[in-house]
Amino acid sequence: MLAKRIIPCLDVKDGKVVKGINFIDIKEVGDPVQCAIEYNRQGADEITFLDITATHEGRGTMIDVVRRTAQNVFVPLCVGGGIRTIDDFRDILRAGADKVSVNSAAVHNPELIREAADKFGSQCVVVAIDAKRDGKGSFHVVINGGRIDTGIDAVEWAQRVYKLGAGEILLTSMDTDGTKNGFDIELTDTISNMLDIPVIASGGCGCLEHFSDVFEKTQASAALAASLFHYGELTVEQVKQHLAKHAIPVRKIKA
């Protein structure tokens, strides 16, 4: 079995790491490069930056953050938020990112996935899928931070983006996100079991047991968390030590 990856996620606005609740009360809480360096020290397998400014005017700031991080951190960097064009992909990758994540833009223009995969390789293309239960036993793709229900079946969408050339899926359950009650096992299991590309579980992690739970009950390749790491409730080392005790393979644990 391949080692499972642990991925801290940082929300970046105007060059600063920020946190908020339900997209309000946004507060600056740190420098993204310094945060990334600390997560690298802890043994993170990858780091994800989400540009919540997501505007053309803010793109230069994010590119500078990526460039400075790539000079100091030696784990893969994935950057998402506001990516709409092939030029956006190129700019972020040239700055030093290893992967680029697209969400709403892929929904509006699915061919962007194929074009990016053809130009840069599938390994660079991550499609972020935010999914929410429809109350009838299915999951719908939602965009704009969960505020807009596209009506697209999330399972069918995952299959489609795979066929278009996505190399990985970042799967966030909007039902569990922020609850700290655990990852959405049903959603993650359904999608990770039917695809031959890695699926990153996201949304709802609140304790060590939630990490082992998602890996024991689904085929997820990685687990992503944000505030849990950012506010020091857990470290990457603690998560990896916990997983190792549960006989779940992880990459080297930092001393």
Structure commentary:
The chain has a single domain, classed as TIM Barrel (Alpha-Beta Barrel), CATH 3.20.20.70. The chain is 37% helix and 27% strand. The chain contains 10 helices and 12 strands. It has helices at 32-42, 59-72, 86-94, 104-108, 111-120, 154-164, 185-194, 208-217, 227-230, 236-245, and strands spanning 5-13, 16-21, 24-30, 47-51, 77-80, 99-102, 125-133, 139-143, 148-153, 168-173, 199-202, 222-225. The chain is globular.
Features:
EC 4.3.2.10; histidine biosynthesis; 10 helices; amino-acid biosynthesis; alpha/beta; Imidazole glycerol phosphate synthase subunit HisF; 255 residues; 37% helix; 8-stranded parallel barrel; TIM Barrel
Structural class designation: alpha/beta
The CATH homologous superfamily corresponds to: Aldolase class I
Strand content: 25-35%
- In CATH, the architecture is Alpha-Beta Barrel
What number of domains?
Answer: 1
Note the run of SSEs as H and E: EEEHEHEHEHHEEEHEHEHEHH
**Rg from alpha-carbon coordinates:** 17 Å
